Amino acid sequence: MKLKIKKGDLVEVIAGKDKGKQGKVVGVTGKDNPNKTRVFVEGVNRVKRHTKPSQTNQQGGIIEKEAAIHLSNISLVDPKTNKGGRIKIVQGKKGERIRTFKKTGTELKA
Predict the structure, then answer these.
(1) Strands 74-77, 38-41: parallel, antiparallel or unpaired by DSSP?
(2) Residue 36 exposed, middle or buried by CB count within 10 Å (0-12, 13-18, 19+)
(3) How far is CA 73 from CA 44, 45, 54, 92, 97, in A?
(4) Percent of the chain surpassing pLDDT 90
(5) What CATH topology corresponds to 10-77?
(6) Is 76 exposed, middle or buried, given 0-12, 13-18 or 19+ CB atoms closer than 10 A?
(7) Confidence (pTM)
(8) How far is CA 15 from CA 71, 72, 92, in A?
(9) CA-based nearest residue to 9, from 103, 94, 99
(10) For the chain, how far is it from start to end, CA to CA, in angstroms?
(11) Are 99 and 80 in contact (CB under 8 A)?
């Protein structure tokens, strides 16, 4: 399964507690296993983790970080409309794969 979302893309959450929020993709996990295809979005789905003091983190305490979101709950943001939209893969002139929005036809840079 080839993913249509890459690290650095601007996405919008379309389902869940953070619905309507936008952010950049920080990381993608589970590329090999389609059952665990999730992404980390900057500033979205933040969770608190309680940590004990250790050698690396001598202070300890509560750390806030992003948790993963399933791919079905996000959509790419179209730069023209600044809203989420569906994309399709189009063959370029030199055989490269170009991600294009279905409604507006806007091309995304690789």
Answers:
(1) unpaired
(2) exposed
(3) 12, 12, 36, 29, 24
(4) 63
(5) SH3 type barrels. (2.30.30)
(6) buried
(7) 0.81
(8) 10, 8, 32
(9) 99
(10) 18
(11) no
* Lowest pLDDT segment from 3-7, 23-27, 29-33, 95-99: 29-33
Is the confidence at residue 54, as pLDDT, over 60?
A: yes
Q: Give residue 109's identity as a one-letter amino acid code.
A: K
**Which contacts qualify for 97-105: CB closer than 8 Å, 24 or more apart?**
99/4, 101/76, 103/78, 104/78, 104/80
Q: Which DSSP state fits 52?
A: -
Token output for 63: 């750390």
Q: Alpha-carbon distance 98 to 107, whole Å? A: 7
